[in-house]
Design a protein that fits this description.
The protein has a three-stranded mixed sheet with strand order 1-2-3. The chain has a three-stranded mixed sheet with strand order 4-5-6. With 143 residues, the protein is an alpha/beta fold. It has five helices and six strands. The longest helix is centred in the C-terminal third of the chain and has 25 residues. It has a single domain, classed as Roll (CBS-domain). Helix 4 crosses helix 5. The structure holds adenosine monophosphate. Adenosine monophosphate binds next to strand 3, helix 3 and strand 5.
């Protein structure tokens, strides 16, 4: 099962913000959209980084509530690990687990085409394992 399959189910919308937007803007969007991370892109659409709820917590722990007025660019992770649509879900889960993060933007020809969370990936992986399990049971029963 590939990343493309997850995107077919969940859609390809990716919430993006500009590097100069504030952390306060971020928390409003994260809360309103009920998401844990968003992609930071320049006005021409080029990916600049990723910022998750963990970065917001860290910023406030370090600088207090004043951090909310700072630009996203101060706290985002600029070195973003991305996935391709034809990567397997297992490969993506492994990358997230090794990198200790829970979100992976998906790119095609350098353009952002979706985002996958660890929750999306685990849900699809479990469904695949269950399908394989019942196919195997059926095969054994009819053999
Ligand atoms: P998360 O587990 O996604 O909340 O993110 C934990 C930390 O990893 C935060 O500092 C994020 O900015 C960073 N992060 C999240 N996703 C990625 C990614 N795909 N590539 C690199 N860093 C990431």
């Amino acid at each position: 099962m590939t990343v493309a399959r997850i995107l077919r189910t969940k859609g390809r919308d990716v919430v993006t913000m500009l590097p100069h937007n504030s952390l306060r803007d971020v928390i409003d969007v994260l809360a309103a959209k009920r998401i844990g991370a968003l992609v930071i892109a320049s006005s021409d659409g080029k990916m600049q980084g990723i910022l998750s709820e963990r970065d917001v917590v860290r910023a406030i722990a370090l600088h207090g509530a004043d951090a909310l007025e700072d630009p996203i660019s101060h706290y985002m992770t600029a070195n973003v690990v991305t996935a391709e649509e034809d990567e397997t879900v297992l490969g993506v889960v492994t990358k997230m687990s090794n990198g200790r993060f829970r979100h992976m933007p998906v790119v095609k020809d350098g353009n952002l085409v979706g985002i996958v969370s660890i929750g999306d990936a685990i849900k699809h992986r479990l469904a695949q394992i269950e399908k394989e399990h019942s196919e195997l049971k059926e095969y054994i029963a009819t053999a």
